[in-house]
Automatic annotation (TrEMBL):
InterPro entries linked: ATPase_NBD, FtsA/MreB, PilM
Matches recorded under Gene3D superfamilies: 3.30.1490.300, 3.30.420.40
Superkingdom in the source lineage: Bacteria
Record-linked PANTHER family: CELL DIVISION PROTEIN FTSA-RELATED (PTHR32432), ETHANOLAMINE UTILIZATION PROTEIN EUTJ (PTHR32432:SF3)
Coiled-coil portions: none
The name this protein goes by in its record: SHS2 domain-containing protein
Organism (species): Candidatus Shapirobacteria bacterium RIFOXYB1_FULL_38_38
Length: 345
């Protein structure tokens, strides 16, 4: 078993994946999930005891897997990350970070001595001008993750933006497409990541997630949230199911989501003068019946659900999930684990 684990501390649950490489093959060494007992642990801050509840759940998760990870790769929630595509003049490598700090004053809403900035050069034109994907996060939030894993005796090898991790999953599982938009559907939020030539150019977070759809069903049909969730998973956007009542209930939320995606697609085209070729869905809400078909019809592009384990050998472990149907929920954890496999970390 690999010593490195990718861990996704999501709002609803905490997921982990460990991968290893042998020859030309990639193998799944471990996969698991536990409920997150303190969904607001980041917002409540380092002085709250919420982080210790999360730590207890992480410990339980690894105990269940009989795993003793030495290194952890985790991700910040997208709404805790500020990212921008920055255009810079020709610069040496050691000059880029200073230029980004100057640019950051225009889009980072915190004092710069309270944030950490990272970046990736995504394009360099013939004149040497740079397109840089810049990422900033509050030091206080970063320290919360450091404290969490240090309390468990684990080394936090890297703390990434979800966009960086999801880029690996896209590049690993999607072929022959240059312009891709990924929608990672979480419980409360959905993250949108736009890529071109295997590099991240834009990200945005939408306040529409699986819970929004479930609540719409609950309110419109007078169901408790648990029953509404089951109806959503069973019938979704299918027009012929239950006389279309579930579809009608979630239609306003779907329309809002589709409009946000349309804006992101237009923005991508205007900025890069290229069109999105493929929309990929991941996360817990990706498999809702009828969703891919409805989005394809409304947006006019191909839509598919990501299969993060499609090219990964899963025979070594007893799977706690249907890897084909539910593997998309573990996309972020898989992308974090892939950091240990690739040279372009």
């Amino acid at each position: 078993m690999s010593d490195l684990f990718g861990i996704d501390v999501g709002v609803g649950s905490i997921k982990t994946v460990s991968l290893s490489k042998s020859g030309n093959g990639v193998f799944l060494d471990a996969i698991g999930e536990v409920k997150n007992p303190a969904p607001e642990w980041i917002k409540n801050g380092i002085k709250s005891k919420d982080w210790s509840e999360v730590a207890s759940s992480v410990k339980l998760l690894f105990n269940d897997l009989k795993a003793k990870p030495k290194q952890i790769v985790a991700s910040l929630p997208e709404d805790e990350v500020i990212s921008r595509l920055i255009r810079l003049p020709p610069l040496k490598d050691n000059e880029i970070i200073d230029a980004l700090k100057f640019e950051a004053e225009t889009f980072v809403p915190y004092p710069l001595d309270q944030v950490s900035i990272d970046y990736e050069v995504v394009e360099k034109d013939n004149a040497g001008r740079l397109s840089v994907f810049a990422i900033a996060a509050k030091n206080e939030t970063i320290q919360l993750y450091v404290k969490l894993f240090k309390s468990l005796g684990m080394d936090l090898a890297a703390l990434e933006s979800p966009a960086v991790a999801m880029k690996r999953v896209i590049n690993h599982s999607v072929e022959a497409v240059n312009s891709v938009m990924l929608v990672d559907m979480g419980e409360k939020y959905s993250d949108v990541v736009s890529l071109n030539n295997k590099k991240v150019y834009f990200t945005r977070s939408m306040s529409v997630g699986g819970e929004s759809l479930t609540r719409a069903i609950s309110i419109n049909l007078g169901l408790d949230m648990s029953s509404a969730e089951e109806y959503k998973k069973a019938y979704g956007m299918k027009e012929m199911q239950l006389e279309g009542k579930i579809r009608q209930a979630i239609q306003p939320v779907f329309v809002s989501m589709a409009e946000e995606l349309r804006k992101a697609i237009v923005s991508y085209r205007e900025e890069l003068n290229k069109s999105i070729e493929l929309l990929v869905l991941s996360g817990g809400g990706a498999n809702m019946p009828g969703l891919t078909e409805e989005l394809a019809k409304v947006l006019g592009i191909e839509v598919q659900v990501i299969q993060p384990f499609l090219k990964i050998d899963t025979k070594k472990v007893v799977l706690p999930i249907n890897i084909n149907a539910d593997g998309c929920r573990f996309s972020l954890a898989a992308g974090l684990a892939m950091r240990g496999l690739e040279d372009d970390k």
